[in-house]
Write a sequence for this structure.
């Protein structure tokens, strides 16, 4: 018997801000969660799965229109034709308070209650699924502690949307511990909420399958679902199946050996080629990070917009347009000897010394946002929102920004002179 465990589908996730990126394959990326769900359904059909488990966050908040719900219903109807039953529960993103519209689901789909844990019994296949969904967006209690006792003679599954004892980047919802989960005596815990795949425990199996489709550069790598083969009431096989239709990647390239901008572009081109090969024919959405102390730094940092355009052109050449650069981050540095420059007695030495002193003065760094207030008022709000926003109130960020200014300014002032 095969069971498929998925979570965090985030169907029709809005991907806010994507349209800001010139040349972005907006429709392909927006449709990626739908394609991933279709791949999940095809997997269930291929494996002749008896059961599909969805451990929360099927949706991504309220629907923009009915098409999201109708698409899901159509996919579940496909599973009914294939003989696959579905047990799902609501996570923080699709809690009852967030879903204003509802549609009748096919009779092969069972949604577990949100006020009290309950059990879905499938006697014909010898399986029972225990679980409880989120009644509101924020659930801070250990709801797993109140799950029912296992039913003897059956394969007992716990379905739970949780942060366990905490995971970086995820809200601490429905917190619990491995001791609580083990104490229930279930055979398998199907978890959701954490977007990175993780086998938390082997006995019993406690698994986060990760999200079905990466949605931005902070969710790189293979995404998919977990297939469980059960035989005589025991897990015989556990494997991860890749189901994403768009692959996100952070491509970090060391350009220390690049003599100039052209060689730096060639290094990025080669790195993107390797990432594209690993994506297996999927659209690759890559964030390129350039690093290293390089002779090419003045050319790279001197005109970052021009250099980014050169990298985007190189990306188009990698695999027939199947690579898109989401962002280019420049973290290189030049071959300047700041200490030697600061020891000079001329105006350039005084400037180098002042800039170097600024890097070591935390209070002065935190005063810079006030100096840059006029610039900040002219930038769009989106530049400061979200995890990729500009954190002007962070001393480490301001130190990095000041360091970039020092490198760029001194390189230009030096011209052909070498310190």
């Amino acid at each position: 018997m095969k069971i498929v465990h998925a979570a965090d589908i985030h169907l029709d996730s809005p991907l806010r801000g994507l349209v800001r990126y010139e040349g972005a394959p907006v429709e392909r990326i927006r449709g990626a969660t739908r394609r991933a769900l279709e791949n999940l359904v095809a997997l269930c059909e291929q494996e002749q799965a008896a059961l599909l488990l969805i451990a929360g966050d099927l949706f991504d908040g309220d629907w923009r229109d009915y098409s999201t719900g109708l698409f899901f219903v159509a996919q579940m109807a496909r599973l009914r034709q294939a003989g696959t039953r579905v047990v799902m529960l609501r996570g923080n993103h699709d809690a009852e308070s967030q879903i204003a519209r509802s549609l009748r689901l096919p009779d092969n789909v069972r949604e577990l209650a949100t006020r009290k844990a309950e059990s879905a019994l499938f006697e014909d296949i010898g399986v029972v699924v225990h679980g409880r969904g989120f009644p509101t967006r924020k659930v801070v209690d250990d709801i797993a502690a109140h799950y029912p006792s296992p039913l003897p003679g059956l394969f007992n599954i716990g379905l739970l949307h949780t942060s366990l004892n905490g995971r970086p980047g995820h809200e601490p919802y429905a917190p619990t511990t491995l001791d609580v989960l083990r104490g229930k005596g279930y055979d398998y815990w199907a978890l959701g909420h954490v977007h990175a795949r993780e086998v938390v425990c082997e006995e019993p199996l406690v698994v986060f399958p990760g999200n079905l489709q990466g949605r931005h550069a902070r969710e790189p790598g293979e995404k998919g679902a977990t297939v469980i083969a059960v035989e005589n009431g025991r897990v015989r096989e556990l494997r991860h199946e890749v189901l994403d239709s768009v692959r996100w990647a952070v491509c970090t390239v060391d350009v220390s050996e690049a003599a100039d901008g052209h060689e730096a572009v060639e290094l990025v081109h080669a790195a993107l080629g390797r990432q594209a090969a690993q994506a297996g024919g999927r659209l690759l959405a890559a964030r390129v990070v350039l690093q290293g102390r390089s002779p090419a730094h003045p050319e790279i940092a001197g005109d970052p917009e021009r250099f980014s355009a050169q990298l985007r052109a190189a990306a188009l050449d990698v695999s027939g347009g199947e690579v898109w650069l989401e962002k280019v981050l420049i973290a290189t540095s030049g071959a300047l000897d700041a200490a030697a420059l600061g020891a000079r007695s001329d105006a350039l030495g005084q400037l180098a010394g002042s800039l170097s002193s600024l890097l070591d003065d935390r209070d002065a760094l935190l005063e810079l946002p006030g100096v840059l207030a006029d610039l900040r008022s002219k930038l769009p709000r989106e530049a400061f929102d979200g995890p990729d926003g500009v954190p002007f109130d962070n001393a480490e960020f301001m130190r990095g920004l000041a360091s970039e200014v020092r490198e760029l300014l001194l390189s230009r002032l030096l011209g052909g002179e070498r310190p």
